[in-house]
Design a protein that fits this description.
The chain has helices at about 20-35, 55-70, 100-110, 125-135, 150-160, 205-215, 230-245, 275-285, 285-295, 310-315, 330-345, 345-355, 370-385, 390-400, 410-415, 420-430, 440-450, 455-470, 475-485, 485-500; strands spanning about 10, 40-45, 115-120, 165-170, 175-180, 185, 195-200, 220-225, 255, 260, 325-330. By secondary structure, the protein is mainly alpha-helical. The protein starts with 7 loop residues before the first strand and ends with a helix.
């Protein structure tokens, strides 16, 4: 059923440190909801914390959003520099640090309208009263002491040199709303007390700037993390005040997304190594693979299908289908889904996706030793073996290095049993006279060598594989030999025989 009001959602991260996967899932659900309903996806940056925010982190956010494919409709910069899409919009600017005058103006209107007031309580006084309330078994939120400060008291406080914050005056009423994920929720007034919206130095707090921006940008649905649920009744009260002041048009619908849990069933935090988006990019996750997995953290495509494209997800995504229960991040499942998406690529797209890991700083070979034709020939065989794209470097290094890098454990395993010198000598002779136009002929040559020494193919090919590639595990051997070529293959077997003392 179509929404009566066009959907407008926002994603509003703070530029502090590297983006993390929990943040990405929030962006994904907002973006998918907007695209499903043909609405607008607004990208806003909450950069009012001068001590923690940085331009470097801001640029990382932009880069991450572009890499993930979250094309925004309104934002602080263009999603695509060629088209200019998403640069600005009717509610610009989209960085909170550039909207300070707006917040000051709204705060003054709240003060003038009696919706907010100056609070002169010191931190020590607040702590003492909260402790007394706790001991008495009462709610320990702000007790409203400054709600009724007279002009004379105000003058006396200021004569003492006291500064004041600005608090929003919460209505003395129960607040009930329907969460799109969790259903109907009710908050009693004693549990939601007056709260600060401006610091003593006049700087606006998150509790003001976030809902004011949502109101002015006409956001219809606020989809955010469960950790922000407790602030929702405060924001609803503020929205109602903003509506009465003619600043807001409506109270948005809220949906609070479940926690993402990490090791030990603890909430995944920015400090957890596995939470960093950069980690997955560096390892070579595809955006499609990572987003497919992250969408399953609280939502499902169907009971029997975990693998799907982002377009398929958008076609089915409804916020009401999100599960309220915490979701556990499972790296193994994430890798398995990413591997499936790698196999879904056509070969040309796969070869291009691997490009960063075939050059510095990842590639251990000299740039001039990279052979494009050899890479394109081996790529279809490599594609079926990878979990993440970064694995391609070690899988194909034997093609581009002057000589293989021997893994000592592999060498010991393959050469430490039987008579590897005799086997390699026989295999070399048969490969020298084999037909090098097909991997099947090379397989027959190694199989024949093994039979002469009473070995099945598996045991016969292990010494050949290590001699040529340096490892016991890798890409299909005979396809690898074909791409490497006869001369280089025989030279490597000779080098292995020399290493064995033959």
């Amino acid at each position: 059923m179509a929404n009566a009001t066009p959907v407008r959602v926002r994603f509003c991260p703070s530029p502090t440190g590297n983006p993390h996967v929990g943040l990405v899932r929030t962006a994904l659900f907002n973006w998918a909801y907007a695209r499903h309903h043909g609405g607008a996806f607004v990208f806003r940056v909450e950069d009012t914390d001068a001590a923690r925010d940085s331009e470097e982190s801001y640029e990382q956010l932009l880069d991450a959003m572009r890499w993930l494919g979250f094309d925004w409709d309104e934002g602080p910069a263009a999603f695509d520099s060629a088209s200019g899409k998403g640069d600005g919009g009717p509610h610009a600017p989209y960085r909170q640090s550039q909207r300070m005058d707006i917040y000051q103006d709204v705060a003054q209107k709240l003060l003038d309208g009696g919706y907010a007031y100056h609070c002169y309580c010191t931190a020590e006084e607040l702590d003492e009263r909260r402790e007394a309330a706790r001991k008495a078994g009462k709610a320990s939120g702000y007790d409203g002491k400054c709600r009724t400060v007279t002009p004379e008291q105000k003058a006396a406080y200021e004569a003492e040199g006291r500064t004041s914050i600005v608090r929003f005056r919460m209505p003395d009423e129960t607040i009930t709303f329907t969460d799109l994920v969790r259903g109907e929720l009710t908050f009693q007034p004693e549990n939601v007390t007056d709260y600060g919206i401006l610091r003593a130095n006049g700087a606006p707090l998150y509790t003001l700037v976030n809902p004011v921006d949502d109101a002015l940008m006409e956001i219809t649905h606020v989809l955010r993390g469960e950790d922000l649920l407790s602030s929702t009744p405060r924001q609803i009260a503020l929205y109602k005040a903003l509506i009465e002041l003619g600043i807001a048009k409506q109270v948005p619908a809220f949906g609070h997304l479940p926690y993402v849990m990490g090791e030990g069933n603890k909430k995944l935090s920015k400090r957890d190594p596995q939470s960093s988006l950069n980690l997955y990019r560096e390892r070579g996750f595809l955006p499609e693979g990572l987003l497919n997995y992250l969408s399953l953290l609280g939502w499902s495509f169907s009971e029997d299908q975990d693998l799907f494209s982002i377009d398929e997800m958008v076609a089915k995504f409804e916020i009401e289908d999100v599960n309220a229960n915490p979701a556990r991040f499972d790296l193994k499942k994430a890798e398995a889904i990413n591997a499936d998406h790698i196999r879904r690529l056509d070969v040309k797209a796969f070869t291009e996706a691997c490009a960063p890991w075939l050059q510095a700083p990842y590639a251990p070979w000299a740039p001039e030793d990279f052979d494009r034709a050899a890479w394109e020939a081996i790529a279809p065989h490599a594609q079926t073996r990878l979990t993440v794209l970064s694995e391609i470097t070690q899988n194909v290094d034997f093609l581009f290095l002057q000589e293989p890098v021997f893994d000592e454990a592999s060498w010991t395993k393959a050469m430490g049993k039987g008579d590897p010198v005799a086997l390699l000598t026989t295999a070399r002779a048969k490969l020298e006279t084999a037909d090098w136009s097909s991997p099947e002929a090379l397989k027959e040559a190694v199989l024949a060598a093994g039979e002469e020494h009473g070995l099945k193919l598996g045991k016969a090919q292990a010494p050949v594989r290590v001699a040529v590639t340096g490892r016991t595990v890798g890409l299909p051997l005979f396809e690898s030999l074909e791409v490497l070529g006869k001369d280089r293959t025989l030279a490597r077997i000779d080098a292995a025989l020399k290493k064995l003392g033959a």
